[in-house]
Structure formats: C-alpha cells, structure tokens
Amino acid sequence: MTGGLGQAGGRAWVYGEGVHDEPIDPFNGDPADPAADLHDPGDDAALEPLTDVERQDVLEDLADLEIYQALLAPIGVRGLVIECEDCHEPHYFDWDLLRGNLRHLLSSGRPRVHEPAYDPDPDHYVTWDYARGYADGVHDTLTESGEDDTDSPSA
C-alpha cells in the first residue's frame, strides 16, 4: 500500500500546511464575480491630501466634539447622527467612533468606510446643528449670568 495514513502522494501530511491567513476568494478569476465593480483600496493612492482649510475644519470639528460630549453625554446623548451624502441614510456615531473617524481623516486624508449602526435608538443621538445650538445656548446663558453679576451693585 502506498501513501499510508497521513501521507499524500508519498509525502507526510503536516498540520496547518496550506492554511491561509485570509479567506480564499471563491470568485477569484470568475468573470461573473459580484464584487468586481467594488472600489479597489489601491485606487485611494490618487487622493489628494487634505488642504489646510479642510484640515483646520476637521480640527475644529474635533474641538467642538469634545464640548458637545461634555455637555450632552451627562443628559443621556450617546453621540451624533449624520445624514450620509452617499447613501442618504442617517448614520449614528457614538462619541468615540466619531472622534476616531475624524482623527483617521486627519492622518490619512480620507474618510473611513462606514456602515450604519445596528438598530440604534434615535432618541439617544442628536445632529451637529442641535449640538451646536445647545452649546451656544449654554454659552449664552453663562455669559448673561456673568454679566448680571457685574451689573449688580456690591454691598
């Protein structure tokens, strides 16, 4: 008997041999590959880096995000909702995820691939505009109360 148990073609079988780190593409070389028209990450090399103005906008968004989280998280707001320009769906981002996405944009010059959150509770998310208005309202209230203290005579 040739080959024996654990041998293939006269060669001993070795555990783990031929194992791939990544899954094998079942459509590799198939002209009907359903993913053939998807974006190739190698195409991103042609993207221009952020301009100074764009970079400054992202830095300002990061600073605003810190303020919004400090004001809104204590009252139960988990993050922000953004209307996606690509898919026209609302995307819900918790504070850390949004911060990570903005930092990634700063470092790489391109946004991360995103997917909608699984079954988020919209009651726990607000828009950028709402967060900005809330922060402005808190600022105005604190400024007005500070002015009232300086206008009142001291005894």
Any overview of this molecule?
The chain contains three helices and five strands. It is an alpha+beta fold and 155 residues long. The protein has a domain of 93 residues. Helix 1 crosses helix 3. The radius of gyration is 27 Å and the shape is elongated. The mean pLDDT is 80.
Which key terms come to mind for this protein?
single chain; 155 residues; alpha+beta; 3-stranded mixed beta sheet; two-stranded antiparallel ribbon; 3 helices; 5 strands; elongated; DUF5319; DUF5319 domain-containing protein
List strands and helices in order, with pairings.
Blueprint: E1 7-8, E2 11-12, H1 52-72, E3 79-83, E4 90-94, H2 95-108, E5 125-126, H3 128-151
Helix pairs in contact: 1-2, 1-3
Organism: Micromonospora sagamiensis
Protein name: DUF5319 domain-containing protein
InterPro entries: DUF5319 (IPR035165)
Q: Separation of termini?
A: 110 Å
Largest sheet properties: 3 strands, mixed
Q: Strand order across the biggest sheet?
A: 4-3-5
Outline the low-pLDDT stretches: none
Order of helices and strands: EEHEEHEH
Estimated structural class: alpha+beta
Shape: elongated
- DSSP, total strands: 5
Strand content: 5-15%
Average residue-wise pLDDT? 80
Helix content: 25-40%
* Rg, Cα atoms, Å: 27 Å
Total helices: the number is 3
Protein name: DUF5319 domain-containing protein
Pfam families: DUF5319
